[in-house]
Amino acid sequence: WDILGEGEVKSLAQLSTDHWNQHKRPLRVAIDEAGWRFHNLSDAQVAAIRQKVPEANPIEKAILWRVLKLMRMNIQPIFIFDGPSRPWKRGDVAGRIDWKKIDSLRKMLNHLKISHHRAPAEAEAECARLSELGIVDAVWTDDGDAFMFGAKVLIK
Predict the structure, then answer these.
(1) In the predicted model, is pLDDT for residue 40 greater than 90?
(2) Edge to edge, what strands does the sheet with 154-155 contain?
């Protein structure tokens, strides 16, 4: 894509440090929550863990560790959840959302006082919109559509 150019690759720590030095505030990152959940444990792995420890929340625990690492790097995460008006793909609503599973993650984010909200439709589009409006400085998603929606800085 000639429009995007070659881009620049930086470590997350360097991006955060450069941002702080330039703007004197934390780097604000909109996170496509579904990507973080998807690149985590499978339902089968969670079930196996819960057979041994029924009260375990291994996905939330893994996300908690990632969030704490971001906070140590002076990064302010803002989680965006997919919304109810997601487009249809192959005759079905794209990836059904289990709101009960997401509720425990939302509670954890509330306890940590981390901003989050549900997008009107696709989370990556909402993340990009927040970037375009200057509310966040970067978007964390695996979906390259974020550039099409207006994201300027993409974290993968």
Answers:
(1) no
(2) 116-118, 75-81, 27-32, 138-140, 154-155
pLDDT band at residue 129 using 50, 70 and 90 as cut-offs: very high
Fold for the domain defined by 12-155: Rossmann fold (3.40.50)
Interatomic CA distance for residues 46 and 42, integer angstroms:
6
Question: What are the residue boundaries of the structural domains of the chain, listed by start?
Answer: 12-155
The alpha carbon dihedral of 137, 154, 125, 80 has a sign of negative
> In the predicted model, is pLDDT for residue 92 greater than 60?
no
Please tell me the pTM assigned to this model.
0.86
Residue tagged 């487009």 (tokens): 87
